[in-house]
Amino acid sequence: MTEKKPIKQPAKRYYRKRVEIFRLIDKIKLWPSRRGLLHGIRTIEVIGDQARITTHCNKTFLITNSRSSRAARWLRNKWFKGACSVCRVPDWKLAKYSSTYFERHYGSALSGGSEEGKKQGK
To answer: Is residue 84 part of a domain?
Structure first.
């Protein structure tokens, strides 16, 4: 009577490789710490070229909008040791993140209807 449903594999998602880190973090809601833990993001407040991130474990810090930063590289290459136990990132979110691919010439640019994307014709 207590049959477990088979876990459905999440669909493959493709994003552009060199997308802005603010858009990427706003979409996947994960942040890699320097220790290699993935934190769940509660809020992102964009302040010009910087953003204030608040995680679910109540850590707040400022980040800059860089495509080649440590965090951007770690997110694209999926370098992490585990999830933060305080943030309690669910297994389905980790499975969804692990099925995400970053391609150079294919995938969503995460434009979100911004003025900058409209100017470039994307």
So the answer is: yes
**Residue 120 is encoded by which pair of tokens?**
């470039």
Nearest to 19 by CA among 86, 95, 116, 119: 116
- Phi, psi of 3, rounded to the nearest 5 degrees: -80, 135
Nearest to 77 by CA among 95, 99, 102: 102
Where in the sequence is the domain holding 55, given as residue range(s)? 13-108
* Stated length of the chain: 122
Of 4, 6, 122, 28, nearest in space to 80 by CA: 28
* Count: domains in the chain: 1
Residues near 92 by beta carbon (within 8 Å), at least 6 away in sequence: 10
**pLDDT for the residue numbered 7:** 66
| Nearest C-alpha neighbor of 97 from the set 77, 120, 113 | 77
- pLDDT tens by residue, 17-51: 888 889 899 999 999 999 999 999 999 999 999 99
Give the containing element (helix H, strand E) for 119. Answer: helix 115-120
